[in-house]
Amino acid sequence: MRKLLSLTLALSMSGGAIADTCMVSPTSKEQVSGRFGKFREGGAANFGSGNAKPHMHDGLDFSTSGQTAPLYATSAGTVTWAKLRGSAGNTVIIKRDNGQSAVYYHLSYIAVKEGDKVQAGQEIGRAGSTGMQPGGAVHLHFIYGVPNADDARAKTFSADANKNPTFNPAQLPNAISKQSTAFNYATDPSPYFCKTFPIQNDGLYPVLGSDTMAQYNKLFGAAPPMGVPPSTQFDPVQVAAANGDALQAASKGATSMASVLNDSDGYGSLPSPPIGDYETMSPAEMMSTEAMRRFADSEWNKSITQVSSRALWVDYLRAQGVSAQLNAAIRQKKERMEALLALYTSQKLAAKRQQVDAARERAQRADVQRAIQ
Fold this sequence. Notes:
- Keywords: Coiled coil, Signal.
- Helices cover 35% and strands 15% of the residues.
- By secondary structure, it is α+β, with helices and mostly antiparallel strands.
- Residues 1-7 and 9-19 have low confidence and may be disordered.
Protein backbone atom coordinates (compact mmCIF):
# COMPACT_ATOMS: atom_id res chain seq x y z
CA MET A 1 0.00 0.00 0.00
CA ARG A 2 2.88 2.35 0.78
CA LYS A 3 4.26 1.78 -2.74
CA LEU A 4 0.83 2.56 -4.20
CA LEU A 5 0.76 5.86 -2.34
CA SER A 6 4.30 6.70 -3.52
CA LEU A 7 3.29 5.87 -7.07
CA THR A 8 0.27 8.16 -6.78
CA LEU A 9 2.48 11.00 -5.57
CA ALA A 10 4.90 10.34 -8.43
CA LEU A 11 2.00 10.55 -10.86
CA SER A 12 1.04 13.93 -9.46
CA MET A 13 4.58 15.29 -9.74
CA SER A 14 5.44 14.03 -13.22
CA GLY A 15 3.49 16.58 -15.21
CA GLY A 16 6.41 19.00 -15.61
CA ALA A 17 9.25 18.86 -18.07
CA ILE A 18 11.88 16.21 -17.49
CA ALA A 19 14.38 19.00 -16.92
CA ASP A 20 13.82 22.61 -15.86
CA THR A 21 14.58 23.80 -19.40
CA CYS A 22 15.31 21.65 -22.43
CA MET A 23 18.88 21.75 -23.72
CA VAL A 24 20.17 23.22 -26.97
CA SER A 25 22.47 21.21 -29.24
CA PRO A 26 26.08 20.79 -28.09
CA THR A 27 27.31 21.09 -31.69
CA SER A 28 26.06 22.28 -35.06
CA LYS A 29 26.99 18.81 -36.38
CA GLU A 30 23.76 17.22 -35.22
CA GLN A 31 24.11 13.63 -36.40
CA VAL A 32 24.63 10.90 -33.79
CA SER A 33 27.22 8.31 -34.79
CA GLY A 34 27.12 6.26 -31.57
CA ARG A 35 23.93 5.25 -29.76
CA PHE A 36 23.53 5.45 -26.01
CA GLY A 37 23.42 1.95 -24.48
CA LYS A 38 25.13 -0.03 -27.25
CA PHE A 39 27.36 -2.73 -25.76
CA ARG A 40 30.93 -2.58 -27.00
CA GLU A 41 32.70 -5.92 -26.76
CA GLY A 42 36.26 -4.61 -26.63
CA GLY A 43 39.10 -4.38 -29.11
CA ALA A 44 38.11 -3.20 -32.59
CA ALA A 45 34.45 -3.15 -31.49
CA ASN A 46 35.29 -0.17 -29.25
CA PHE A 47 35.99 2.05 -32.28
CA GLY A 48 39.29 3.41 -30.99
CA SER A 49 38.03 4.17 -27.48
CA GLY A 50 40.73 4.59 -24.86
CA ASN A 51 38.65 2.19 -22.74
CA ALA A 52 39.70 -1.14 -24.28
CA LYS A 53 37.49 -3.23 -21.98
CA PRO A 54 33.98 -4.41 -22.91
CA HIS A 55 31.51 -1.77 -21.73
CA MET A 56 28.19 -0.08 -22.38
CA HIS A 57 28.39 3.17 -24.35
CA ASP A 58 27.26 5.67 -21.71
CA GLY A 59 26.64 8.70 -23.92
CA LEU A 60 25.78 9.96 -27.39
CA ASP A 61 28.56 10.30 -29.95
CA PHE A 62 28.08 13.30 -32.23
CA SER A 63 29.97 13.02 -35.51
CA THR A 64 31.77 16.23 -36.45
CA SER A 65 32.81 14.86 -39.87
CA GLY A 66 36.45 14.75 -38.79
CA GLN A 67 36.49 18.46 -37.96
CA THR A 68 37.45 20.09 -34.67
CA ALA A 69 34.07 21.82 -34.66
CA PRO A 70 33.02 24.25 -31.90
CA LEU A 71 31.14 22.76 -28.94
CA TYR A 72 28.51 24.67 -26.99
CA ALA A 73 27.03 24.68 -23.49
CA THR A 74 23.64 22.98 -23.71
CA SER A 75 22.25 25.11 -20.86
CA ALA A 76 23.25 27.61 -18.22
CA GLY A 77 25.41 26.26 -15.43
CA THR A 78 28.76 26.19 -13.67
CA VAL A 79 31.90 24.52 -15.02
CA THR A 80 32.98 21.91 -12.43
CA TRP A 81 35.65 20.17 -14.53
CA ALA A 82 37.88 21.52 -17.31
CA LYS A 83 40.97 19.34 -17.71
CA LEU A 84 42.20 15.86 -18.64
CA ARG A 85 40.16 12.89 -17.41
CA GLY A 86 41.95 9.62 -18.23
CA SER A 87 40.70 7.86 -21.36
CA ALA A 88 38.05 10.59 -21.73
CA GLY A 89 40.81 13.00 -22.72
CA ASN A 90 40.17 16.71 -22.34
CA THR A 91 36.86 16.94 -20.51
CA VAL A 92 34.41 19.68 -19.60
CA ILE A 93 31.59 19.12 -17.09
CA ILE A 94 28.88 21.74 -16.62
CA LYS A 95 26.58 21.40 -13.60
CA ARG A 96 23.11 22.83 -14.13
CA ASP A 97 21.18 24.65 -11.42
CA ASN A 98 18.94 21.57 -11.05
CA GLY A 99 21.94 19.41 -10.06
CA GLN A 100 22.17 17.58 -13.40
CA SER A 101 25.37 17.63 -15.43
CA ALA A 102 26.37 17.90 -19.10
CA VAL A 103 29.66 16.13 -19.84
CA TYR A 104 31.90 16.61 -22.91
CA TYR A 105 34.71 14.12 -23.72
CA HIS A 106 37.73 14.08 -26.09
CA LEU A 107 38.00 17.85 -26.67
CA SER A 108 40.95 19.13 -28.68
CA TYR A 109 40.69 22.51 -26.96
CA ILE A 110 39.03 23.77 -23.78
CA ALA A 111 37.76 27.36 -23.80
CA VAL A 112 36.51 27.56 -20.19
CA LYS A 113 37.93 27.01 -16.73
CA GLU A 114 36.54 25.48 -13.56
CA GLY A 115 34.20 27.84 -11.71
CA ASP A 116 33.12 29.70 -14.85
CA LYS A 117 29.42 30.50 -15.25
CA VAL A 118 28.24 29.68 -18.77
CA GLN A 119 25.05 30.30 -20.74
CA ALA A 120 23.26 28.06 -23.22
CA GLY A 121 24.94 28.28 -26.62
CA GLN A 122 28.25 29.61 -25.28
CA GLU A 123 31.33 27.98 -26.86
CA ILE A 124 33.16 25.82 -24.31
CA GLY A 125 35.75 24.14 -26.55
CA ARG A 126 36.25 22.14 -29.73
CA ALA A 127 35.70 18.52 -30.69
CA GLY A 128 38.72 16.24 -30.78
CA SER A 129 40.03 12.74 -30.15
CA THR A 130 42.11 13.20 -26.99
CA GLY A 131 42.23 10.15 -24.74
CA MET A 132 41.51 7.81 -27.63
CA GLN A 133 43.83 5.33 -29.31
CA PRO A 134 45.92 6.63 -32.26
CA GLY A 135 43.71 7.21 -35.28
CA GLY A 136 40.54 7.64 -33.21
CA ALA A 137 37.83 9.67 -34.94
CA VAL A 138 37.33 13.32 -34.04
CA HIS A 139 33.90 13.58 -32.40
CA LEU A 140 32.02 14.62 -29.26
CA HIS A 141 31.12 12.01 -26.67
CA PHE A 142 28.27 13.61 -24.69
CA ILE A 143 27.12 12.24 -21.32
CA TYR A 144 24.21 13.47 -19.21
CA GLY A 145 24.36 12.83 -15.46
CA VAL A 146 21.51 12.89 -12.93
CA PRO A 147 21.97 12.92 -9.13
CA ASN A 148 19.29 10.30 -8.40
CA ALA A 149 19.63 6.69 -9.59
CA ASP A 150 15.82 6.47 -9.88
CA ASP A 151 15.93 9.14 -12.60
CA ALA A 152 18.58 7.33 -14.65
CA ARG A 153 17.42 5.51 -17.79
CA ALA A 154 19.95 3.05 -19.18
CA LYS A 155 19.46 -0.25 -21.00
CA THR A 156 22.18 -2.06 -22.89
CA PHE A 157 21.76 -3.88 -26.20
CA SER A 158 23.96 -5.75 -28.64
CA ALA A 159 25.32 -4.18 -31.82
CA ASP A 160 23.69 -7.17 -33.56
CA ALA A 161 20.28 -6.70 -31.92
CA ASN A 162 18.67 -6.44 -35.37
CA LYS A 163 19.64 -10.07 -36.03
CA ASN A 164 17.55 -11.30 -33.11
CA PRO A 165 14.12 -12.35 -34.47
CA THR A 166 12.56 -12.10 -30.99
CA PHE A 167 14.15 -8.79 -29.95
CA ASN A 168 12.02 -7.30 -27.16
CA PRO A 169 13.10 -3.93 -25.67
CA ALA A 170 11.12 -4.68 -22.50
CA GLN A 171 13.42 -7.64 -21.77
CA LEU A 172 16.67 -5.69 -22.04
CA PRO A 173 18.60 -5.45 -18.76
CA ASN A 174 18.84 -2.16 -16.93
CA ALA A 175 22.44 -0.97 -16.93
CA ILE A 176 22.62 1.88 -14.42
CA SER A 177 26.33 2.62 -14.03
CA LYS A 178 28.08 3.10 -10.73
CA GLN A 179 27.79 6.60 -9.32
CA SER A 180 30.46 8.92 -10.67
CA THR A 181 31.95 11.42 -8.25
CA ALA A 182 32.05 13.94 -11.12
CA PHE A 183 28.54 13.67 -12.59
CA ASN A 184 26.59 11.01 -10.59
CA TYR A 185 24.54 8.60 -12.79
CA ALA A 186 24.75 8.52 -16.58
CA THR A 187 21.33 8.50 -18.26
CA ASP A 188 20.08 8.55 -21.85
CA PRO A 189 20.29 12.28 -22.70
CA SER A 190 17.63 12.14 -25.45
CA PRO A 191 14.57 13.53 -23.59
CA TYR A 192 16.55 16.41 -22.10
CA PHE A 193 17.27 18.01 -25.48
CA CYS A 194 14.93 20.46 -27.19
CA LYS A 195 15.22 18.51 -30.44
CA THR A 196 15.61 14.96 -31.65
CA PHE A 197 18.82 13.98 -33.43
CA PRO A 198 19.09 11.62 -36.42
CA ILE A 199 21.26 8.54 -35.91
CA GLN A 200 23.76 7.39 -38.51
CA ASN A 201 22.51 4.13 -40.05
CA ASP A 202 24.08 1.31 -38.05
CA GLY A 203 21.71 -1.48 -39.01
CA LEU A 204 19.57 -1.01 -35.89
CA TYR A 205 16.83 1.11 -37.47
CA PRO A 206 14.35 -1.84 -37.58
CA VAL A 207 14.57 -2.48 -33.83
CA LEU A 208 15.56 0.87 -32.27
CA GLY A 209 14.53 3.53 -34.78
CA SER A 210 16.46 6.15 -36.72
CA ASP A 211 16.63 8.99 -34.19
CA THR A 212 17.37 9.52 -30.51
CA MET A 213 13.80 9.87 -29.24
CA ALA A 214 12.60 6.92 -31.31
CA GLN A 215 15.13 4.75 -29.48
CA TYR A 216 14.28 6.27 -26.09
CA ASN A 217 10.55 5.63 -26.53
CA LYS A 218 11.15 2.06 -27.70
CA LEU A 219 13.36 1.26 -24.72
CA PHE A 220 11.63 3.16 -21.95
CA GLY A 221 8.17 4.03 -23.23
CA ALA A 222 6.55 7.41 -23.43
CA ALA A 223 4.60 8.25 -20.29
CA PRO A 224 1.05 9.45 -21.09
CA PRO A 225 -0.30 12.74 -19.72
CA MET A 226 -0.65 12.39 -15.92
CA GLY A 227 1.43 9.21 -16.25
CA VAL A 228 4.72 8.35 -14.62
CA PRO A 229 7.89 7.17 -16.38
CA PRO A 230 9.52 3.86 -15.38
CA SER A 231 11.43 3.99 -12.11
CA THR A 232 13.50 1.56 -10.08
CA GLN A 233 11.35 2.64 -7.13
CA PHE A 234 8.23 0.98 -8.54
CA ASP A 235 7.39 -2.42 -9.92
CA PRO A 236 6.96 -2.32 -13.74
CA VAL A 237 3.49 -3.85 -13.39
CA GLN A 238 2.47 -1.01 -11.04
CA VAL A 239 3.79 1.59 -13.49
CA ALA A 240 1.92 0.00 -16.40
CA ALA A 241 -1.30 -0.16 -14.36
CA ALA A 242 -0.95 3.46 -13.24
CA ASN A 243 -0.33 4.65 -16.79
CA GLY A 244 -3.35 2.64 -17.93
CA ASP A 245 -5.46 4.44 -15.34
CA ALA A 246 -4.00 7.76 -16.50
CA LEU A 247 -5.01 7.02 -20.09
CA GLN A 248 -8.55 6.10 -19.01
CA ALA A 249 -8.82 9.29 -16.95
CA ALA A 250 -7.62 11.35 -19.92
CA SER A 251 -10.19 9.71 -22.18
CA LYS A 252 -12.90 10.92 -19.78
CA GLY A 253 -11.72 14.51 -19.87
CA ALA A 254 -9.20 14.65 -17.03
CA THR A 255 -6.29 16.98 -17.73
CA SER A 256 -4.31 16.89 -14.48
CA MET A 257 -4.16 15.15 -11.11
CA ALA A 258 -5.81 18.22 -9.57
CA SER A 259 -8.78 17.81 -11.92
CA VAL A 260 -9.16 14.20 -10.79
CA LEU A 261 -8.75 14.68 -7.05
CA ASN A 262 -11.56 17.16 -6.42
CA ASP A 263 -15.10 17.24 -5.06
CA SER A 264 -16.91 17.71 -8.38
CA ASP A 265 -17.93 14.04 -8.61
CA GLY A 266 -19.45 13.75 -5.14
CA TYR A 267 -19.72 15.40 -1.75
CA GLY A 268 -18.97 15.00 1.91
CA SER A 269 -16.47 12.76 3.61
CA LEU A 270 -16.37 9.33 5.20
CA PRO A 271 -16.44 8.84 8.98
CA SER A 272 -12.94 9.27 10.32
CA PRO A 273 -11.07 6.60 12.27
CA PRO A 274 -10.45 7.52 15.93
CA ILE A 275 -6.69 7.71 15.43
CA GLY A 276 -6.12 9.60 18.68
CA ASP A 277 -8.01 6.94 20.67
CA TYR A 278 -5.88 4.19 19.16
CA GLU A 279 -3.01 5.18 21.44
CA THR A 280 -4.89 3.62 24.39
CA MET A 281 -6.17 0.55 22.50
CA SER A 282 -4.64 -2.86 22.03
CA PRO A 283 -4.02 -4.07 18.45
CA ALA A 284 -7.08 -6.32 18.76
CA GLU A 285 -9.25 -3.37 19.81
CA MET A 286 -7.90 -1.28 16.95
CA MET A 287 -8.73 -3.98 14.40
CA SER A 288 -12.19 -4.45 15.87
CA THR A 289 -12.87 -0.70 15.81
CA GLU A 290 -11.67 -0.36 12.23
CA ALA A 291 -13.71 -3.38 11.12
CA MET A 292 -16.85 -1.94 12.73
CA ARG A 293 -16.22 1.47 11.12
CA ARG A 294 -15.76 0.06 7.64
CA PHE A 295 -17.97 -3.01 7.46
CA ALA A 296 -20.73 -2.62 10.07
CA ASP A 297 -21.43 1.12 9.97
CA SER A 298 -24.48 1.83 7.81
CA GLU A 299 -23.46 5.47 7.37
CA TRP A 300 -20.03 4.45 6.02
CA ASN A 301 -21.58 1.92 3.61
CA LYS A 302 -24.06 4.51 2.38
CA SER A 303 -21.48 7.27 2.00
CA ILE A 304 -18.92 5.16 0.14
CA THR A 305 -21.02 5.35 -3.05
CA GLN A 306 -21.66 9.09 -2.79
CA VAL A 307 -18.47 10.80 -1.66
CA SER A 308 -16.02 12.42 -4.05
CA SER A 309 -12.82 10.84 -5.31
CA ARG A 310 -10.89 13.30 -3.15
CA ALA A 311 -12.74 12.05 -0.07
CA LEU A 312 -11.82 8.48 -1.01
CA TRP A 313 -8.16 9.43 -1.24
CA VAL A 314 -8.39 11.19 2.14
CA ASP A 315 -9.85 8.03 3.62
CA TYR A 316 -7.08 5.99 2.00
CA LEU A 317 -4.45 8.21 3.62
CA ARG A 318 -6.24 7.84 6.96
CA ALA A 319 -6.20 4.09 6.48
CA GLN A 320 -2.44 4.36 6.05
CA GLY A 321 -2.34 6.14 9.40
CA VAL A 322 -4.36 3.33 10.99
CA SER A 323 -2.00 0.78 9.45
CA ALA A 324 0.97 2.65 10.89
CA GLN A 325 -0.70 2.72 14.33
CA LEU A 326 -1.36 -1.02 14.17
CA ASN A 327 2.16 -1.81 13.06
CA ALA A 328 3.60 0.33 15.85
CA ALA A 329 1.38 -1.32 18.46
CA ILE A 330 2.24 -4.81 17.23
CA ARG A 331 5.95 -3.95 17.21
CA GLN A 332 5.72 -2.65 20.79
CA LYS A 333 3.94 -5.84 21.88
CA LYS A 334 6.65 -7.93 20.23
CA GLU A 335 9.30 -5.87 22.00
CA ARG A 336 7.57 -6.47 25.35
CA MET A 337 7.34 -10.19 24.64
CA GLU A 338 11.00 -10.33 23.70
CA ALA A 339 11.90 -8.42 26.87
CA LEU A 340 9.86 -10.88 28.99
CA LEU A 341 11.49 -13.84 27.26
CA ALA A 342 14.91 -12.32 27.87
CA LEU A 343 14.07 -11.78 31.57
CA TYR A 344 12.70 -15.33 31.87
CA THR A 345 15.81 -16.76 30.22
CA SER A 346 18.05 -14.70 32.50
CA GLN A 347 16.20 -15.91 35.61
CA LYS A 348 16.34 -19.55 34.46
CA LEU A 349 20.07 -19.22 33.83
CA ALA A 350 20.57 -17.68 37.27
CA ALA A 351 18.66 -20.58 38.88
CA LYS A 352 20.68 -23.13 36.92
CA ARG A 353 23.89 -21.35 37.90
CA GLN A 354 22.90 -21.56 41.59
CA GLN A 355 22.17 -25.28 41.21
CA VAL A 356 25.55 -25.85 39.56
CA ASP A 357 27.35 -23.87 42.27
CA ALA A 358 25.54 -25.83 45.00
CA ALA A 359 26.41 -29.14 43.34
CA ARG A 360 30.06 -28.11 43.06
CA GLU A 361 30.16 -27.17 46.76
CA ARG A 362 28.63 -30.53 47.74
CA ALA A 363 31.15 -32.35 45.59
CA GLN A 364 34.02 -30.41 47.14
CA ARG A 365 32.78 -31.17 50.68
CA ALA A 366 32.49 -34.84 49.83
CA ASP A 367 36.06 -34.85 48.51
CA VAL A 368 37.32 -33.20 51.71
CA GLN A 369 35.49 -35.72 53.93
CA ARG A 370 36.94 -38.66 51.99
CA ALA A 371 40.41 -37.18 52.29
CA ILE A 372 40.03 -36.84 56.09
CA GLN A 373 38.84 -40.40 56.45
